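Hey,

The postdoc asked me to send both predictions to you directly instead of through the lab channel. I've kept everything plain text so nothing gets mangled by the mail client. Protein one:
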Amino acid sequence: MNKAEILVIDDEAQIRKLLEITLQSNGFAVNTAISAKEGLIQASSHPPELILLDLGLPDQSGHDVLKKLRQWYTNPVIIISVQKNEEDIIRALDNGANDFISKPFRTGELLARIRSALRNVNTDEHETVLMYSNLEIDLSNRTVKKNNQLLRFTSTEYNLLALLVKNEGKVLTHHYLLRAIWGPGYIDQSQYLRVFIAQIRKKIEDDPNRPGFLLTESGVGYRFVGGQ
């Protein structure tokens, strides 16, 4: 049993029922809300381990709900919405969403995204050496090894990789990464990001053209995946 509690904020009855059945059958405890107001009240009175949030709520935009949640709520928020254009996805991720899944969705993929988000939260904050298959990342000593061989990283390459690893499973947008690594004056310099991502992939991936760790979310950003 996972035992984690999930709050579903969605005004569509069929979706709520589907999610309730799917999540409960996989060991999660589920609470539901049909509006922004109800969802915010439930989240504040009994904070869940994760929130599934629809953008098209009847009383206010899910984007506004997300902003209000992020004033105090630190656990994962996954957006589930029929709105699937890049602008909506990027806006949600920049406002603090951990992930974005478009309706209709495959339940297997949704469950995998939920497990990834919860695993990232439950990672021991004091754990400094992270192991992923043949890859070892030592956050304390700022070193990276592959097959027990020390890899040479520039400071910028390491900082970029570490930021993605610390947010394992979460999509980090181009603007977020550029702002965090190079500063606010570089948020439109996407070529910087492409070059450094390519350099990191050459070092950590078995096949840089078919990456297994550092995945591209087309038009949005990048995600580090350590494995299911």
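Protein two:
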Amino acid sequence: MGGVVKALLEVGGVSILERLAVLLAPRFDELLLVAKEPEPFAALAQQSPPWRLALDALPGRSSLTGIHTALANARHDHVFVTACDTPFLQPALLNALRQRLTVEDDVVLPQKPDGYFEPLCAIYSRRCLPHIAAQLAQGDHKIIRFFSKVRVAPMPPDELLATDPNMLSFQNANTPDELRALREAAAELRLSPKEVS
């Protein structure tokens, strides 16, 4: 996307970040935004609900360094992590993930029908931190690589499809064409930000 701050792209007339806030704020008492640079998000402190900015200062920045930063800065033992370029995160899927979570679980995440996990729509325990840190120290940024060292509770594909039959939650904006498709989908679905909660 040419260095664009994807979280601030508009889909359906509002930024993806605002759309996510509407969904997440009633369900969590803390909203963390992990970012590389603070400048694009300077106005967030004045927004309601407020976001707390956590800067990803680790070398080799990646989704895994972002998860590490979120866990290191969170006030709670478990953290729900989502990508900030996914405007159609489904409430039913989020609720189902939360219902599956037990205090012993380190990772709770959906498993798609093709067998792949969705690690950027998942709940992580702070117990994952040392395993993530050790993996990053080896230069390995593949999220699921540390899963063998922690307790993982996958949501089976049939349950995922029951909560999000079209897997809208995972549609994101990695290219201009994907952004265009998201905007067209928002228009077809006639989604306003208030409809996501």
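Summary for protein two, as requested: The chain has six helices and eight strands.

Thanks,
C.
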